[in-house]
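Table S2 (text version). Query chain:
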Amino acid sequence: MPHVPRTKAKQVNMTELIKSMSEELDYYWSLGVERDYETESCLIYKVQQHIRDSDRFSYEPCIVSVGPYHHGSASLQGMEKEKWGYLDMIIRLNCDKNLLDYVKAVEALAKRARNCYSEYINMDSETFLQMLLLDGCYILCSLGAVNRLVQNRLEHSECASVHETGAVGGEQPEHVKNEDILRENDTTCQVTIEEIRKEETGDQTGYWFIRFINHDLLLLENQIPFFIVKTIFELVTVNCASPPCLTDELAKYVESALLWYPKANLDSDRTKNFHHLLHLCHIYFQPSKRLEEDSNSELGPHYINRFLSFGRKYFRISHYLENSDHDSSFQNDMDTLESGNHLNRWRRAAQYLEAGIRFKKREYDKLDPHSLLDVRFLNGEMEIPCLVIDEHAGSLFRNLIAFEQTCPQFGDDFTAYIVFLSQLISMPEDVTLLGQREIIVHHLDSDDKVSDLFTLLSKDVVFDFNGNYYLKSLCQTLEDRYQSRINRWMSWLWLNHFSNPWLAVAAFATVIVLVCTIVQTVYGILAYVNPPK
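Corresponding C-alpha cell output:
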C-alpha cells in the first residue's frame, strides 16, 4: 500500500474571516434596505447563461448599449460618438441649464439606479454616472422625445449659449469640443435633431439601422430606469410653457415599433406608469379585461346548448375544475392526481378542427380595439388576432418572456399566449391551416421554421398550467369540445361527407325522402287502425 503523505491543514484565522463576512453581509444588507417598492418593481435582470447560449442575438445588442450590462463592449463603440452629440444637443436646448446641472440631477439618482440591476455592477461611480447621463440623452433624442421641443425653440427662441466643457469621469471626445461641428455662429436651437444625426453618423437612417436600433432598445438587458430619462427631460423643459408629454412621445415610438401588432390601448389610454422601454412594450401585449366574458359566452339557441351539455356530460373524458382558494392549491393538485383526473392541455390546430372547432381571424375594429393576446371562442369559432412573424419577432418575444419570468409581479399573460401558440402550431401543417385563415402571416422560409420558432420560444419556460392564467377558461372550454364524441362525429361527417356541396344536397334530398316515407308510413298505419267510416 503506497504511503500517502499527510498535509497539515492551515489554521483558519477566525477573526479575519468573521470580519470579511460581516463586511459582505453589511454590503448586501444595505442594498436591500435601499431598495424601496418602486425600485424592486424595476429590477433589470440578466438572462441566464444556458438560455442565452441558445440564441445570443435575441438577448444581446447589435449596435448600441444602454445600461451597464453591455457597456464598453468593443463591437458597440461606434454609437458612443452619437451619444456625445445627443448630450450636446440636450444641453443646448435649455439656455438656463449647463452640464453641471444635468450631472448633479443624475448623481442624485445614481445610487437608486444602481440598485435597479440584479447583477453586481463593476463600474466606479464616475463611469456609472456618465453612462446614465449619456444613455438617457440618447433615448430622449433617438426616439424623438425632444423633436417637438426643437421645433418650438426654432419658432419662439433665438437665445444663444455656450455650454460648459469637460466630461464626467474623463475627457470629452474631440468631436464634442469642436464647436464648428454642432454650432453655427454660437446660436442655440439652430440645428435640428435630423441634422445632428446626419452630421454625426453619416445619415445612418437606413432600414437596417432603424431595425437594429429597435431590436437593441427592446432588450431586457439593455435598459436604464425610466426615472433617469424623466429627470433629464424635466431639466430640458423646466422653462417650457407647454412641454410635450414624455410618456406619450415614448409610447409613440413603441407603437411604431409594434406597427403590425394589434393594440388595445387608445391614444387617450396611453399608460403613464412604466419602468423602462421593454416594460412599456409589455403593456401593449396585455389582454383586454373583457376577454374572459367573451370566451365564456355561448351564442346560439338554448336547446343546442342543452344538447351539447348532454353530450359533454356523458362522453367527455375529464374536466378539471378550478379552485379559487390558492392556499389549498397543493392539496387540490394531490386530490386531482388521486382521483385520476387530468389537467387540461392545449391541442394542435388540426386536432381542434377534427373536433368541429373552426378558426377565424379576429378583425380589428378601431371602435372596439383588441390586443394580440385577445383570443376568444364564440359560436363554435376560435377567433385569433392576426400574428405577423418576421426574423426579428423571435427576439422581441424572447425578451418579453424573459421579462415576465424574472418579474412575476407583472403577470404571465404573454408567456401563456406563447405556450398556447407553441402547442397550437406544433406541426407545420398547423401553421399552414392558420395561414389559410390569415391568422398567421409570416416572412420566414417555410411553415416548418414558424413551428420550430415557437417550439424554441417555449423551451425552458416555467409555466403553471394549474395557475390562474388568462386563457384558462378558454382552455377548459376547448378541451370540453375536443373530448365530446358528438362534436367529433359531427365534424367527421361534415369533413368527409358534406364538404362537397353536391354530396350535401344529395344527403339533404335523401333525408327529405326518408322523412316523407316515414310520414306516409305513419299515415298508412293510422288509416289501417282507424279506417274511415
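Notes on Table S2: The longest strand covers residues 358-362. DSSP finds 25 helices and five strands in the chain.
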